[in-house]
Design goal:
By secondary structure, the protein is of the alpha+beta class. It has one domain: Homing endonucleases (Endonuclease I-creI), CATH 3.10.28. The protein contains 5 helices and 4 strands, in the order αββαββααα. It has a 4-stranded antiparallel β-sheet with strand order 1-2-4-3. The radius of gyration is 16 Å and the shape is globular.
């Protein structure tokens, strides 16, 4: 197995705090970087406190912070901490026990299936594409704005 960069090991307190930030102001998402590409796993936290985002980045030891432009003079400058792919999975393993919102179900789904459904070379068979598409649909439907019609153990 290739030696991927990992997130730093977090203390229980840091893992719980970061999980709370993600539950409150963060996202667990499957995002496309370019049109037509497969979705990649991303964890992000947006906030107006640069010190908070810097703390998360330092604690995790991976990821990046991007600043958002303000479109109006009365808007507060903000930023977003983002970590993706294998490093995001590593962070997710550490924080999942502390998640309390629908994001806990998303986390479990990702941890149980994402690596198996994401070939390292990016080449999918027809069966893999179909299974991955079902996984992505299930993930995206795990949203508080949608009716809870899926169970986590559904195929």
């Amino acid at each position: 197995m290739v030696g991927y960069r990992k997130a730093r090991g977090l203390s229980r307190e840091d893992a719980a705090y970061i999980a709370g930030l993600i539950d409150g102001e963060g996202t667990l998402s499957l995002t496309r970087r370019h049109r037509g590409e497969n979705r990649q796993f991303v964890i992000s936290i947006s906030n107006t406190e640069a010190r908070l985002l810097n703390y998360v980045c330092r604690a995790v030891g991976a990821g990046r912070i991007t600043r958002k432009r303000t479109s109006k003079s009365n808007h507060t400058p903000s930023g977003t901490y983002t970590i993706d792919n294998r490093q995001a999975l590593d962070l997710l393993q550490q924080i999942t026990p502390y998640l309390r919102t629908y994001k806990a179900k998303r986390a479990k789904l990702v941890l149980d299936h994402y690596l198996r459904l994401t070939p390292r070379n990016g080449k999918y068979t027809a069966a893999q594409k179909k299974t991955r598409a079902a996984f992505v649909t299930k993930f995206l439907l795990m949203n508080p704005r949608r009716p809870a019609t899926l169970r986590l153990d559904d195929p």
